[in-house]
Amino acid sequence: MNSLPAITGWHWLKQGAGLFRKQPAALATLLFANILISLGVSALPFVGPLVVSLLIPSFSLAFMQACLMIENGQRVTPAVLLTGFRKPIFPTLCKIGLVYLGISLVQLVLVYLLIDQEAMQEMARQSRAGEQPQVSGAFMLTVILIALLNLVGVITMCFAGPLTYWQKMPPGKATFYSFFAVLRSARVFLVMLLAWFAMFVAITMVLAMLLGGSSFTRVLIMWLIFLFVLLLQCALYAGYRQIFGKPVDGAQTGPVNLSK
């Protein structure tokens, strides 16, 4: 594909914000439904968190389909949540979910190998005792690096689910196209994520300065996190649309072509 200018990432964010503004309540309802289902599944003994990882592509596809419906002027209903859970697409999405599961397992291994377990236990003890946890700079840097690696892994998979649904690709091919589409547009995604994060931090700092550290401020920040998760989902749809074309009635306006 031709190199997209880095500023395209900012345009994706603006387009995502435009989609969100059209039906914010519907998208928020979709997000909370996803969260509730994920929490319910996670409560299952032993296998709960593993199953949630397998279902990530199905959950993500619901947001992509909702964004398409909003763009087409259709009303988004809670039924869109079932988009990725119907046959025959559900088993295929679960196969892609195995990749997400692998990413989660790698993250757990890195946490175990790179983070001082005694330091984590001491921080937990301090929190239970009502003390301010003492966090070293090296500890925070390690946590941030692991989180960034996990984010990179998840972002490179963001188009795999939609490609299986709209392009009827097998899981391996969809994963391949998603990975290299993101890789070849890496600077665009970097700008999008940096702008997204900078906006979140700026708004959070303003709220903290104006309202202090009250419980009300913490509630507002929690709502802000939800809003920014939705904004990122909508921006990813804008990215998919530009790279692969707009889906029309379950198909694409043109063939997938990474050289375009």
What's the SSE blueprint?
Layout: H1 8-22, H2 24-42, H3 48-71, H4 89-114, H5 117-128, H6 137-156, H7 160-166, H8 171-184, H9 186-211, H10 215-244, E1 247-248, E2 251-252
Antiparallel strand pairs: 1-2
Structure description:
- This protein is mainly α.
- It has one domain (8-252).
- It is 74% helix and 2% strand.
- A two-stranded antiparallel sheet has the order 1-2.
- Mean pLDDT is 85; it is low at 250-260.
- InterPro entries: BPSS1780-like.
- Keywords: Membrane, Transmembrane, Transmembrane helix.
Q: What is the straight-line distance between the termini? A: 4 Å
Order of helices and strands: HHHHHHHHHHEE
Q: Specify the oligomeric state.
A: single chain
Would you report the number of β strands?
2
Mean pLDDT: 85
Q: Main sheet: which strands, in order across?
A: 1-2
Key terms for this structure?
single chain; 260 residues; mainly alpha; 10 helices; 74% helix
In a few lines, what is going on in this structure?
This protein is mainly α. Helix content is 74%, strand content 2%.
